[in-house]
Amino acid sequence: MKLLRFKMEGVIKTGVVINGGLVEIHHSLLEASGSPLDDLERKRFYPLDEVKILPPVEPSKVVCVGLNYQDHAQELNMDLPEEPILFLKPTTTVIGHGDPIIYPPQSHQVDYEAEMAVVMGQKARFVSKDDANDHVAGYTVLNDITARDLQQKDGQWTRAKSFDTFCPLGPWIETDMDPSNQNISLKLNGDVKQDSNTGNMIFSVEELVEYISKIMTLNPGDVIATGTPPGVGAMQVGDVVEVEVEGIGILKNHLKLG
Ligand code: MG
Predict the structure, then answer these.
(1) What is the distance between the alpha carbons of residues 26 and 214, in angstroms, rounded to a whole number?
(2) How far is the CA of 128 from the centre of ligand 1 (A)?
(3) Ligand 1 is a single-atom ion; what residues have CB below 5 A from it?
(4) Is the preceding omega at residue 171 within 30 degrees of 0, hence cis?
(5) Residue 228 Cα to ligand 1 middle (Å)
(6) Strand pairing partners for 2?
(7) Which residues does 233 contact at the CB level (< 8 Å), separation at least 6?
(8) CA 171 to centroid of ligand 1, rounded, Å
(9) What is the pLDDT of residues 6-19, one digit of tens each?
(10) How far apart are the CA of 3 and the centre of ligand 1, in A?
(11) Which pLDDT band, with edges at 50, 70 and 90, does 235 fall under?
């Protein structure tokens, strides 16, 4: 089931994507993610292109994993990490499908990074990998925008990863999906730049939930960005960037001058 949040006449609503359109439902997205479609109280139908799609959740944090694809580690000639490498993006980075990514004047190299994202449904603290799936609401698409020059210059990642608009998320969550074997790809102005499979991830979703929840409480709506495959690269103002995860859909954004 594909669940999204959208805005219509100034009101934030929740919907299910059905037959190229969406049906408004009488539940919050996280409530609905735990219910079968038949149990959801349905309201109006809207064509998808007539609504403003919002990020599917408003997380209390976005936890990101660096270097989590075997093929990306090979590309960089780096050893595989023994433990996940974590960093955070502030919630003010989050934007939705169709929103502009603002190119900040402080940077001269702004890169895309195609990622699959986990959306938590239940609070998770000290959750074992065997129980991890019970705490996940679903999966969505994320673009971990990075000011690469500032990442290298600063020697740590906060500034490079944290500009407003640097976390496109959406367009919706898929609640019924095997996250361990889905194609993941990225197109820049229509050209394929990244093309891999989540099967190449070093740490699985279950392992990441266990590892992260031993460090910090994951709240409902929190997002885990699971890392990017090979082929990351720079974007320019005016570019259109599309990230696709098989089974979920396409997250499309464009770059605008700050
Ligand atoms: Mg990343």
Answers:
(1) 35
(2) 24
(3) 113, 144, 228
(4) yes
(5) 5
(6) 174
(7) 111, 112, 188, 193
(8) 18
(9) 999 899 999 999 98
(10) 24
(11) very high
Q: Give the Å distance between the CA of 113 and the centre of ligand 1.
A: 6
What is the CA(8)–ligand 1 centre distance, in A? 32
CA-based nearest residue to 97, from 255, 223, 251, 254: 251
pTM to 2 decimals?
A: 0.97
Q: Ligand 1 centroid vs 143 CA: distance in angstroms? A: 8
Distance 161 CA to ligand 1 centre (A): 9
Residues 132-170 have pLDDT tens digits of 999 999 999 999 999 999 999 999 999 999 999 999 999
Tens digits of residue pLDDT in 34-90: 999 889 888 899 999 999 999 999 999 999 999 999 999 888 888 899 999 999 999
Give the integer Cα–Cα distance in Å for 204 and 142.
Answer: 17
Give 119 Cα–ligand 1 centroid separation in angstroms.
16
